[in-house]
Amino acid sequence: MIEIPDQFKEKFTGLLGQEEAGKLLDSLAEPSKKAYRINSLKEGAVVYSQEEAVPGIPNAYYGGVSGKDPEWTAGMVYSQDPAAMFPAQAIPVKPGDKVLDLCAAPGGKSTALAQKLQGEGLLVANEISPSRAKILRENLERWGVSNAVVTNCDSFALSARFPGFFDAILVDAPCSGEGMFRKSEDAIKYWSQENVDLCADRQREILTEAVKMLKPGGYLLYSTCTFSPEEDEEIVSWLLDEYGFKLLPIAAEKAAPGRPEWGNGDASLANCARFWPQDGVGEGQFVASLQKAAGEESFAAEAGEVFSPVRKNKDKKKKGKGKNKGNRSSLERPSKEESCYISEAIAGFNWPESLASWPSQMLKSQDHVFVPALEPEQLKGIKVLNNGLELGILKKKRFEPSHQLAEVLGQVDQERVVDLTEEEYDHYLHGESLQVNSSLKGFVLVSCRGMIFSFGKLSGKGQLKNYYPKGLRQ
């Protein structure tokens, strides 16, 4: 039985009244609800129940998933609180947009935004915590996302590089976590009104930088997993008063409208959506969808063309030929010989249409070969964990394809695949090499129940060498 702080009870009894506050407190003693989303970027049949859909979210269902199943390792499903699925659903994003997920870890919202982009445009997924940023990168990699840049910095560093750049920005802000009481004892332990006020101050700081990065007419989605007006309606009121945003309505079944009286009294605050745990959707969530006023690009950066990095890199090489000799960190095109190693290693695989021109786009940095999602010059001064698609690594007279590439190639039908039995799959996850019945030779994709989750390498005698990353082995 969880112990809710008395100050919290008093606060929400005053805000909601005795009856509604009682429903909230009673719901906090109930089990939390689990749900998952199916990855629309990939095709395949998952074995999990699809009997109860999450209302308003495409391809989302109530139920638990296992991190040991091929559905998970192949990036077919993502486990996520059902209420937390709504922010990415509510923000207007279309293929070709430039989108920022500012507080992105562990990646639930970023993977949903990537689905909306469908491999076109750009997703910058940022997380200030190094350990959480690593998890974010792993989840986007598993999801098969090739048009994302994963960064690890604060909002001030990003706004300095990307003024007026993004069509849409999602800020799922750090908050007091009242909506996580059912799932986290720490959320209860560390709750206080003082912490609520500190979080509200931090949210204004983060949003101030986010506004700088948004194009005129662009969309800002603000969300929290908390109920307090100080972090919800009052923050949205501040955005309306300070920056002249327009608050857009949100269609969300079972969500309660925002409370204008909890903010500045603006009637449009009712367009916000709040998910209470007693509504039966999931944990707590507050969502506000806003649009920036249209106008001149007063401080838009010369951000460069997002998808022409190779051409620009070639021009720079001509102008500065020889200047970076011996600097292994400098970017360059793979040599003709290296390009042959790359092509030979990954010949025979089918590619998503969005990556059809990968041979002309690839760059090399310290023997790592990648297809950038964003001009590397634009990322100077930013800590980048991943830029686009890492193809693999050049070694002595050979090339080894990356795990990310395997997950991306899982989006399309493939012929060079070894499909494992459930027993073989378990052994492969442990890092074991296998003896399989296949006439293929060289690098192959490895799947289970038709779901691709790794590369392997076949010898002529059917020995499948294990290339599943050591850090992911179970």
UniProtKB/TrEMBL annotation:
NCBIfam families: nop2p (TIGR00446)
Species in which this protein is naturally found: Lactobacillus delbrueckii subsp. bulgaricus (strain ATCC 11842 / DSM 20081 / BCRC 10696 / JCM 1002 / NBRC 13953 / NCIMB 11778 / NCTC 12712 / WDCM 00102 / Lb 14)
Pfam families for the chain: Methyltr_RsmB-F, Methyltr_RsmF_N, Methyltranf_PUA, RsmF_methylt_CI
Disordered: annotated segments: 310-335
Gene Ontology MF terms in the entry: RNA binding; RNA methyltransferase activity; S-adenosylmethionine-dependent methyltransferase activity
Protein name: Putative RNA methylase
SAM-dependent MTase RsmB/NOP-type domain segment(s): 12-293
UniProt-listed PROSITE patterns: NOL1_NOP2_SUN, SAM_MT_RSMB_NOP
Biased composition (Basic residues): 311-326
Catalytic residues of the enzyme: C225
InterPro entries per UniProt: Methyltr_RsmF_N, MeTrfase_RsmB-F_NOP2_cat, MeTrfase_RsmB-F_NOP2_dom, Nol1_Nop2_Fmu_2, Nop2p, RCMT, RsmB/NOL1/NOP2-like_CS, RsmF_methylt_CI
Taxonomy of the source species: Bacteria, Bacillati, Bacillota, Bacilli, Lactobacillales
Binding residues for S-adenosyl-L-methionine: C103, A104, A105, P106, G107, G108, K109, E127, D154, D172
Keywords from the UniProt entry: Cytoplasm, Methyltransferase, RNA-binding, S-adenosyl-L-methionine, Transferase
Gene3D superfamilies, alphabetized: 2.30.130.60, Sun protein, domain 3 (3.30.70.1170), Vaccinia Virus protein VP39 (3.40.50.150)
